[in-house]
């Protein structure tokens, strides 16, 4: 659902979502589409992974099913890698696994997908959430354990992804003893680079931006290299805590950082136990007055007469003139580059702009953005999928919902 565009989502909401028999012997705990929306991977409490491929427009064909972990599988995600199709899983057996299709084996053989990397957490506590981020041909992984240990990894071999090294580890909320239900969740900002206001404030293009939640708290981290003013890809990333925000009392079950560049600031959605979805806006004010900046400072383009009079009295259209946004970014580039060395000190501000609640409130467990960040899907204990978007007036509204029946 998070990989379809706005027009397709509207059509799906109108006609209802397609259902198919997944054949799992126990509850399906997570599902994930690949980047093209032609393949879906399911994981379930019966320890098995199932991958389906679309056949035509209205049917899904099982490609393979196999035992992926020695316990229930908690989450599954396709990686946004440009090198091929990979997906990862975490299970209650304290394992993180990365899978790749092996075309030398037949479909439905139970061996079509091969585990190319497996890791257990260093503190022997199960992983509860993970995410991935691709910057051009570089892929990064972040994962957090049940007691709150956050790790950032990069591949030793960027092409095969068969071995990974740990870049940094932190406890973003301090150490939580085993048995404490803090509901740790994380979400990468998936756009190619930071939003425009963050760039203007001094956050580098290769910065890894990550939101981490626990209880009713969300923290924003930027993983920066020691010298962000350099364009070199050498040097390890380090986590810096940038901002801290809270719901009032609602416990957070999941978070999702909006992708795309539709807005000059960042938007984060939180699925909450009180039956609501909270929408937060996070900005990086860069104006001299330090105000909460909601718009890009745009430089005015030069007047047409400055480009020279038309020849022969004929009318003309100015070409290659920089747009307002382009001129504004170009005019700020030198000042921005000078500040990147202090990127970890960039000021962040946030505010809760919406509390979304359906007519039948029930705990919300999942939130997913459409690939361009234009709409948000949520689902929970009421068994329905709700679709939300921001109206032209700035108000968040529900524009569709569906249920299994």
Radius of gyration: 23 Å
- The share of residues in extended strands comes to 35-45%
Helix fraction bin: under 10%
Describe the sheet with the most strands.
4 strands, antiparallel
> How many beta-strand runs?
24
How far apart are the termini?
18 Å
Number of helices: 3
Write down the overall geometry.
globular
Mean pLDDT: 80
Query: Which sequence of SSEs, written as H and E, runs from N to C?
Result: HEEEEEEEEEEEEEHEEEEEEHEEEEE
- List segments where confidence is low: pLDDT < 50 over at least 5 consecutive residues: 1-14, 229-233, 288-341
Instruction: Quickly give the structural class.
Output: mainly beta
- The strands making up the biggest β-sheet line up spatially as 1-2-3-4
Organism: Cladonia borealis
GO biological process, one term: cellular response to amino acid starvation
InterPro entries: Sec13/Seh1_fam, WD40/YVTN_repeat-like_dom_sf, WD40_repeat_dom_sf, WD40_rpt
Protein name: Nuclear pore protein
